[in-house]
Amino acid sequence: MDIEAIRLIATAFTIAIGVIAPAFAIGKIGASASEAIGRNPEAAPKVQTAMILAIAFAEALAIYALVIALIVKFT
Fold first, then answer.
1. For the chain, which residues make up each domain, given as ranges?
2. What would the pLDDT profile of 26-58 be if each residue is shown by its tens digit?
């Protein structure tokens, strides 16, 4: 195997693993928020604000994985 093939495989694994965890986290956050709003609809604005903030933090992990994958690919 040459170095370019190893670099491409490392890039693929980096982005694959780096996107799976945030995807599960966002799904769990959304499900928990939906359940909380279903149990107490009056708290929906507070729950929604916390949910959006948590989703943004989880999505940041996927962006970091993308940056690392691009560094691996082009370095």
1. 3-74
2. 999 999 999 999 999 999 999 999 999 999 999
**Assigned superfamily of 3-74:** F1F0 ATP synthase subunit C (1.20.20.10)
Contacts for 13-19: CB closer than 8 Å, 24+ residues apart? 14/65, 14/68, 14/69, 14/72, 15/65, 15/66, 15/69, 17/65, 18/61, 18/62, 18/64, 18/65, 18/66, 18/68, 18/69, 19/62, 19/65
**Which pTM value belongs to this model?**
0.79
Read off the tokens for 72: 């691996």
Q: How many residues does the chain have?
A: 75
Residue with tokens 């149990």: 39
Residues 6 or more apart whose CB falls under 8 angstroms from that of 51 comprise 29, 30, 32, 33
